[in-house]
């Protein structure tokens, strides 16, 4: 049974890696809606399944994000003057977001995730991007924004890139630096959020074997390994498809995911 489950997670990871590479996004938006029905099929109730999907998603981002952050650091794409202030806010917010998520029912958490995904789709459909050319705010403001982004990201199980990149561009950072800084900062969100979900799930009596709190390690391992190998394939396909088609396809994908989750209760 464990072997079959691991194969399912590897297959899910292959899809996550390909789609992430195709659309250039972190896997959290894809991992959570994929894990939720798998966990439910294994007999977990909505409350435990949704919390475990979010916690396990954050754990996968720790591993994949480290590789991305290291590459951007070598390329000099990190805004080191802002990164420490961002991380302070992000870590604090991520820890708080995990505790907030634990206090919510699985259905409420599912609805919050669905609404977040639909809002992201709307931003892509209507090209709602912030104006560039401003200057980096004061450190306190950077930390405050980081706190809010960390809370939301931990609550829905993402690395925060969909929120961090627009903020950094608005702050006058180039796209390349925004992506690089976001990848490094996202590791802190995922790590703090994972710790928060481990703490929040301690004592839960419905957790399956091989889990630590709300993190299920077979899912984390299978998805991480497979996604690393399939992401480059998705990126190669993306390089041959017009950007506007990719944008529309991804927005449509998010609408389907969001509506399915919203009305699946």
TrEMBL record:
Domain of life: Bacteria
Membrane spanning stretches: 6-36, 48-69, 75-96, 108-128, 140-170, 182-202, 214-233, 245-263
Main location (coarse class): membrane
Coiled coil: none
InterPro entries (alphabetical): TM_pro_TauE-like
Record's GO cellular component terms: plasma membrane
Entry keyword set: Cell membrane, Membrane, Transmembrane, Transmembrane helix
Recorded family membership: Belongs to the 4-toluene sulfonate uptake permease (TSUP) (TC 2.A.102) family.
Organism annotation: Spiribacter curvatus
Cell compartments where the protein resides: Cell membrane; Membrane
UniProt name for this protein: Probable membrane transporter protein
Organism placement in taxonomy: Bacteria, Pseudomonadati, Pseudomonadota, Gammaproteobacteria, Chromatiales
Bilayer disposition of the protein: Multi-pass membrane protein
């Amino acid at each position: 049974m464990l072997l079959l489950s691991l194969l399912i997670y590897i297959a899910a990871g292959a899809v996550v890696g390909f789609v992430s590479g195709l659309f250039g996004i972190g896997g959290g938006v894809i991992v959570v809606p994929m894990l939720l029905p798998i966990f439910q099929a294994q007999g977990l109730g909505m409350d435990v399944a949704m919390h475990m999907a979010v916690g396990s998603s954050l754990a996968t981002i720790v591993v994949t994000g480290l590789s991305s952050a290291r590459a951007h650091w070598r390329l000099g794409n990190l805004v080191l003057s802002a990164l420490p202030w961002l991380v302070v806010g992000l870590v604090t917010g991520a820890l708080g977001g995990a505790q907030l998520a634990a206090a919510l029912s699985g259905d409420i958490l599912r609805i919050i995730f669905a609404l977040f995904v639909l809002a992201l789709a709307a931003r892509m459909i209507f090209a709602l991007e912030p104006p560039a050319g401003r200057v980096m705010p004061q450190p306190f403001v950077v930390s405050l924004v980081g706190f809010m982004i960390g809370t939301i990201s931990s609550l829905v199980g993402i690395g925060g890139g969909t929120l961090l990149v627009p903020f950094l561009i608005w702050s006058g950072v180039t796209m390349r630096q925004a992506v690089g800084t976001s990848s490094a900062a996202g590791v802190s969100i995922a790590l703090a959020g994972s710790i928060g979900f481990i703490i929040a799930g301690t004592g839960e009596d419905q957790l399956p074997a091989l889990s630590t709190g709300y993190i299920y390690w077979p899912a984390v391992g299978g998805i991480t390994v497979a996604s690393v190998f399939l992401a480059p394939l998705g990126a190669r396909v993306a390089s041959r498809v017009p950007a506007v088609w990719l944008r529309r396809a991804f927005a449509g994908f998010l609408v389907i995911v969001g509506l399915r989750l919203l009305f699946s209760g």
